[in-house]
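ESCALATION

Customer reports they have been waiting on this structure for their group meeting. Please prioritize. Original submission:
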Amino acid sequence: MLGLLFSLAAPLSRAAEAPKLDGLFGQWFAVQTNLQSWSADFTQTRSLKVLAQPLISTGKVWVATSRFRWELGQPPQTIALRQPDQLVIIYPRLKRAEKYPLSGVPAGPVKDAFALLDASLPRDRAAMEDRFNLLSATETNATLLVRLQPKSASARKFISEIVIGFHTNNFAIAMTEMQFADGSILRNDFTNVVLNPAIPPEKFEAVLAPDVTVVEPLHR
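Update from on-call: job pushed to the front of the queue and completed.
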């Protein structure tokens, strides 16, 4: 199925290259099968239509199966924690935390948006094909760039397109880019990627000080 999608992809990828690109994509998922965890530094670039210059920040990410921790800023201004049953977003300076359940969410745009949480960290090829349409795949400077579009119309109300890039020499993630329906773009470029590091379980725990206000926006 994916091979057919590659052959029908946008003009940026030539049909003659489809088998090679499909093979690289398959090798990438083969690596993900044996990938238990990874960590990296990243540079995040946010491009907004209302701003002449993009907003650029640096941070750190840790990923292990169904968990991740993103820290944006040094010291962290935003911390995003994905746990098996919830997403927690912490704003240390504001002394505020938001909790979002990952189960029991009614069908609709919010549930579809949560389904895209792991889009930049895919582990299963079948699940990706079930959720996304492949728009194109191109290899440039030893990096394979895959452009994806959410199949769900309600999900596209949030994110219109996702680009995932990975190095073809070791299949480590190189970048992710999300294009939002309002025209804004969020890009992460990864460096110092470490595959299968030992990450302490407490790295994914939300340790909140007593003076932090905790809210659950979906329960309003």
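Sent to customer with the following note: DSSP finds four helices and twelve strands in the chain.
Escalation resolved.
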